[in-house]
Structures are given as structure tokens and as C-alpha cells.
Specification:
The structure is a homodimer of 414-residue chains.
Chain A: H1 12-23, E1 27-28, E2 32-33, H2 40-55, E3 59-62, E4 68-72, E5 82-87, H3 100-116, E6 124-129, H4 142-147, H5 167-176, E7 182-183, E8 192-198, H6 203-207, E9 211-217, E10 219-228, H7 245-259, E11 268-270, E12 274-277, E13 287-296, H8 299-306, H9 309-316, E14 321-330, E15 333-334, H10 337-349, E16 354-359, H11 364-368, E17 374-379, H12 395-413
Parallel strand pairs in A: 3-7, 5-6, 5-8, 8-17, 9-16
Antiparallel strand pairs in A: 1-2, 3-4, 4-6, 9-15, 9-17, 10-13, 10-14, 11-13, 12-13
Helix pairs in contact in A: 1-3, 1-12, 3-12, 7-9, 10-12
């Protein structure tokens, strides 16, 4: 595990310029990005990613869920490739680095290998997974779960966004926009997967450290809770006679706050989305639906709290009907110790302060860990803020992460 | 107050057919209607109303808020007219009778006078007030409050619907669609106003009575509560560090439930609309806004509970900023006893079971009562259900209300 010359050819300015260029697709006030999965903005980002790869002669591939791969050949074309990357879609009020950094750092690493004149035994590929965020189309991480075979695209056939636009139609549009990407099946052998990402938490930033050698991800479970009552006139219907879905939702959330209470403040419980019908001031609501995002490092805690959600909601629903469905389940995962060691080693060899740490956010790497040896590289983001226009990272830290990534890829690709 | 021949010429079938024709504009499944104020559907309804009047030679008039008037001349063209009518806009999941009945019953009464060969001293006009519901554009009852001078159209210059469409642009489109309606100022003298309406409550239906001689309306106050926090990552942000607008809204609503508690179940408290941003599962909400619809027959109760809303919300908002604004205030009103007596008299003279009663819902008549002698005529609706696709009324009851209305109008117009 000597350090190669690859890291010396990482170009900080090029990497920064590409972040700025990508940020134009879906730019929102405050330096933010709104690049919903498979939107026109996402398609522009995907075309740009493929065009940048084409300048280096990297062939583009795709699959039936729209994952995009750029391939730098190895000496052994039959060898299972080393894979790196992340996602190009964003939150509705997201930043310029979440996901995008992992894709651009992967491309930068490949270009650094080119410029250093390094040939590897195995091919190296950079992936942009489809719809990691899950904010436009639920669930998230569609691309990686389809790739590893946990779900099939047919499972998402009925998914629509909030405006009623079908996922399948938007996927077809995105695929048609990149005819130069060669179709491939899912689940081909991957030698190893390494995902670079901003931390999205405050640990590295607060401690002034540059590299996180990520050894695990806490588990996550998503639920959808739907209350159905009856709409009626706000002026004439006595409160005792109502089946008010908003009031039922409020009681459910209050009950869930009790269920999810954690004095140690390790458990993460979020109701991020609420949808009400007919949603007008003077009609009692007939329907109220909300999402639950529950996370914890311990599978036993996720199981114990998660299995009580339906019971708590039923007890709180009063005269309304309640339906609880689980829309995503990602168990806590531990990454491959060998790759985590390499991340730590190369960071130290490059003189970068490094910490072994867990991830609070989930990532496509959480699913890939069950499919092939996997790890992640974190870099700091300002005050730990993410999923927010104010998300920020420095050009130096972005380049430092790409340097470590380049060295780890050379190591893994031989 | 002898009963004239007018009521005998009310045509039950014509009145029913016109309800069916109007229900086509914005028809939704389950026999319902979604005819948002100033939408394309509302404009179609307005054109149809004017066209039906034109068949009888009734001139059409409008004003700067888009109220529509059809005029049946009197012997004295300078006399202040008697006015009847209601509104053609609906709730998003509304029925075929709320508002529409009052407009069509007014038109039916005028046609009955024509067919009976009755000439009146005063002109009689039928009005369709603009945006009574307030479900697309807030506040409701824009047309009547502008007519009486309580608000000016300039007060609504910044109003937009949930999709961001400006009220002013939609108003201009609606006015342009009816060039044959002659512009008029607001606030011209009105001799009396009588509004026919379905009860929207269960009293007449449950008792098998046909006519409500409405003597009062409970008061209503609308508020908008807005919580502003900070969006952040659902997986990484400790709960103690969050400024979660959804959780703040839940605490506010729970606190307001306590404030509004009424063991007698006379007070009406409704949170009908909730809007969350960015409204995705894995981001803490930065903004949550909700509406309050508060009603009570006693002005003192409305004042006492209403003035504590901001204090309760501030106490519940935690780390979020809170803003409370009042968007509508309609004091409890008592109608003109002389007109209520005439409604009761003519119902009895026609052999219709009648009850003096208050209105739980508010209506444009609540504002008109402060401007000219005013009353309302209620007819039963099935199980008291309104603001719901299942809203229903019988052809016999619709015609009965129109017969009473025709007699009252003849009485008032001389």
C-alpha cells in the first residue's frame, strides 16, 4: 500500500469548477440546488457527466433503472471493476455537494490516473445512482437497490411524484436523453465500491479533521402513515361529530414523539412531509398523510420502535381509519475493514487528519455493502449543515477527499 | 302580505335541470363539484348564468371584484332594487348546491314573476358574489366585503393561490370573458337582500322541516399561523439541535385544542389546511403553516379565545419563529326581523313546515346585514352534509325554497 503518484494529479481547480457547473442545473437562491430525480435539471446533469467522461474516452453505460456508469479500462477487460460514485439528484432545497461530490470526485480520480500515466489491472468505473434522495419519487436509493437485486424496477411501476407524474415516464425520458449510454444488466460482479461524500454532520468540521474513514452506517426505516376521516363543513359540524384527519395526525405524531423518546438523543425521528386533503380552511380534512424517517445504529432499537408505530397510530386515530406502511428499510451496516484501513492509511500517508467514524446519513453504499466489499470517504461540510441551501465545503477539502479516493482506487484496482 | 301567484310559477323541473347543468362545470367523481373561484370552470358557470338571464332579457352588470348581477326591471327604474343571490364558486371537494342554489333560486324566482305576469315597483336583481368560499384565494367573501366597502380590491392585490397564480390576473380573465356585463361601482343602494341556501347542517333534515327562516349567523374568525425553523438532514441532526417546523405546528395545534375546548360543543375550531416546506421525508421541515377557522354565536367568546391564539402559539413554538395573522373576521349578526317574519309568513301560507333558526355557516348575507335589511332562507340538505361530494338536496325542497323566495321578493319589491 505505497502511495502512488495519482493523488498528485488531482486538480483542485478543475474539481471546484465542475461543482460550480453542476450547481447551475437546478440552481436556487442562496447557492442551493433543486435537482429532483429524473427532472429536466437532473437530465442536464447526467448529460454533462457523460460528456465530461467522453472527453477522456470513458464509455458510458446505463441500466433499466437509469444508473449511469463511466468506464476507465483496465489491463484485464474481463476483471470485475472497482466502482466509485454517488448520485446527482438533490433535495428540493439542497446544496451543491450532497451526492454530486461523490460523482465528481470519482471522475476527478480517474482523470488523475490518466494524467499520472497509471494503468490498473482492473477497470475502474464511476457511477451516478438513480434517485438516491427519494424526495420526488419514493422510496430513495432506487438505483442501488435495483442494481443489487433487492427490488426490481417493476416494484416502482406505480410510483408517481406529488404532481402525479409517473416515475416510469420520467425514467424513459431520462434514458432517451442519453442514447450513447450502452444498456447493461443489473448485478454484474463488482470488485469493490467506494463512495466519497460530505459528512452531512458536524464531527469533522468541529474537530478540524479532513478525512472520515467511514466504518458503518446507522440503519433507517421509512414509514407512511395515512389517516382517513370525512370532510364536512367547519361552521356547522360539531367537534364531537367530526372525523377530522388533521386532528388524528396531530394525535399520532404526539404519540410517536413519546414512542421515539431517547434521552441519549441518538435516535433520529423525523416527520418531514405532511399532505392534507382537501386542504382548505373551512372544510374538515378527509385525509392526512405523513412520513416517518427513523434511524438508529442498533438494529434491535429500529425493530423494537418500528414495530410499535402502527399500534401507537391506531390508538391515536380516534374515529379515523389509519394505514401504516413501511416504504424503506436499511439495516445498520458495517463496511469492509480492509477498505476502511486503506482509506485511513492513504489519508495518513498524504498527511491528512483522519478519523474512523460512523455515518448518520444513509447512502447507496449502505446497500452496496451487502453486495461487495464497500466503504466510504467523508470530508467536512460547514457546520455539518446539509439538505439546505447553506450546505458548503472548501475546495481544499474536496480535493483532499479526491486524493485519498484516487489512491484507494489504485490500490483496489491493482 | 297576501301570497301572490308567483310561487305557483316556480318550475321544479327547470330548477333541477339547471342545477345539473351547473354541476357539469367542475364535476368530480361522486356527484361533486370542484369549481374554484375564477377558474376556467367558474368562468363557464358565470357565462352560463348570464346567458340564461339574457334569454329573459335581464341585463348583466359587474363590478371591479367581478360580482355579477342580472336585473329584472321595476316600474320605478330609480328605486333601490331588491337583491337576492349567493355564489357560484365551490369547495375543492364540494357539492352541487352550496351557493349555486341561491343563485339559481333567485333566477327561478324572477322567471316565475315573468311567467305569472307580475310587475314590481322596484327592480329585482340576482347576484353571484365573487369568491365566497375562500378555498382557492384567501380570504373568502371577497365579493360582498368589497361591495359594502369593508375591503377594497387593492387589499387583495398580492393574493395568490397555492400554485402561485395571482388573484388579480384571474379576476381580469374572468371580467374579460363577460364583455356584455356593464361595469358598475360598489355600494349602490340596496333596498333589501335575501339569500337562499342549503342549511349545511342537520336541523331541518333531521326534523323533516322544509324552510328555515334564518334570523342570525354565528361569528367567524380565520387565522393563519406560520412556523419558521431550519431545514436539516433527518439522519444526522440530533433532535435537540433541530428547529423543526412540523413539530412546532403539532405543539401549537395541541395547545390550541386546549384553548378552544368547549364542553358544550358549540364552539367550532378547525385546522383545515396545513402546508409544509420542503415537505420531503428526510429533511427537517423549515416551514409549516396552518389555518384556523373559529366560530361561535357570541362575540365575547370569539374575542376572548381569538386574542389568546398568538400567545398559545408562541408558547408552543420552541426554537421556531411564529407569526399569527387574522385573515377574516365576521362578527355574529342578527338579520332583519321584518324580512325573517315575511319568510316565516310565506312558508306558512304555502303550507311548508318552517323554523326560525340561526346559521352555523357564514354567508355573504352576514356582511350584507350591516349594509341593508337582510335575511336568509334555508332548505334541508341530506344528513346535513356539505363541503363534501355527498352533499344532496331534493328537487321538491329546492322548489319549495324558490317559492318562498319568490313571494318574499314580490313583497319587498312592491
Amino acid at each position: 500500500m505505497a502511495t502512488s503518484r495519482a493523488s498528485a494529479f488531482v486538480d483542485k481547480d478543475r474539481l471546484w469548477r465542475r461543482h460550480a457547473a453542476m450547481a447551475a442545473f437546478g440552481a436556487i437562491p442562496g447557492n442551493g440546488v433543486n435537482r429532483a430525480a429524473l427532472s429536466a435539471e437532473d437530465i442536464e446533469a447526467r448529460r454533462t457527466f457523460v460528456a465530461w467522461g467522453a472527453e477522456r474516452g470513458y464509455a458510458a453505460f446505463t441500466d433499466a433503472i437509469g444508473n449511469l456508469f463511466l468506464r476507465r479500462p483496465g489491463r484485464d477487460p474481463a476483471a470485475a471493476p472497482v466502482l466509485t460514485g454517488s448520485h446527482l439528484d438533490s433535495q428540493p432545497r439542497g446544496g451543491r455537494f450532497d451526492g454530486t461530490y461523490g460523482v465528481l470526485a470519482g471522475l476527478e480520480a480517474l482523470e488523475a490516473l490518466d494524467d499520472a500515466g497509471i494503468a490498473t489491472e482492473r477497470p475502474i468505473e464511476v457511477v451516478s445512482w438513480t434517485n438516491e434522495e427519494g424526495s420526488r419519487f419514493q422510496p430513495g436509493t432506487m438505483g442501488s437497490v435495483a442494481f443489487i437485486g433487492l427490488r426490481s424496477p417493476a416494484d416502482f411501476a406505480d410510483v408517481r411524484d406529488a404532481a402525479g407524474v409517473p416515475f416510469t415516464a420520467e425514467l424513459a425520458r431520462a434514458l432517451a436523453a442519453l442514447p450513447q449510454a450502452t444498456p447493461r444488466p443489473f448485478g454484474w460482479p463488482v470488485h469493490a465500491f467506494v463512495e466519497a461524500h460530505i459528512e452531512q454532520g458536524p464531527v469533522l468540521y468541529d474537530r478540524g479533521e479532513t478525512i472520515g474513514a467511514v466504518d458503518s452506517i446507522q440503519g433507517a426505516r421509512w414509514f407512511q402513515v395515512e389517516l382517513r376521516g370525512e370532510t364536512s363543513h367547519a361552521g356547522t359540524t360539531p367537534l364531537a361529530a367530526r372525523r377530522d384527519a388533521v386532528q388524528a395526525a396531530v394525535r399520532c405524531i404526539a404519540g410517536l414523539n413519546d414512542l421515539m423518546h431517547d434521552p441519549a438523543d441518538v435516535l433520529r425521528f423525523t416527520v418531514g412531509r405532511v399532505d392534507v386533503e382537501p386542504n382548505v380552511p373551512n372544510s374538515v380534512a378527509s385525509r392526512a398523510a405523513f412520513t416517518i424517517d427513523l434511524r438508529h445504529p442498533e438494529a434491535t432499537v429500529l425493530a423494537a420502535r418500528g414495530e410499535r408505530i402502527a399500534e401507537v397510530c391506531r390508538a391515536a386515530a380516534g374515529a379515523c381509519a389509519v394505514a401504516v406502511s413501511e416504504t424503506l428499510s436499511m439495516p445498520p451496516c458495517r463496511f469492509d475493514a480492509g477498505i476502511v484501513d486503506r482509506v485511513e492509511h492513504h489519508a495518513q500517508a498524504l498527511g491528512l487528519p483522519v478519523r474512523r467514524m460512523p455515518s448518520g446519513a444513509f447512502h447507496d453504499a449502505g446497500y452496496m455493502a451487502g453486495f461487495c466489499p464497500t466503504a466510504m470517504i467523508f470530508i467536512p461540510c460547514e457546520r455539518g449543515i446539509s439538505h439546505n441551501e447553506a450546505e458548503n465545503a472548501t475546495p481544499d477539502d474536496l480535493a483532499a477527499g479526491a486524493r485519498v479516493l484516487a489512491e484507494v482506487l489504485v490500490d483496489l484496482a491493482g
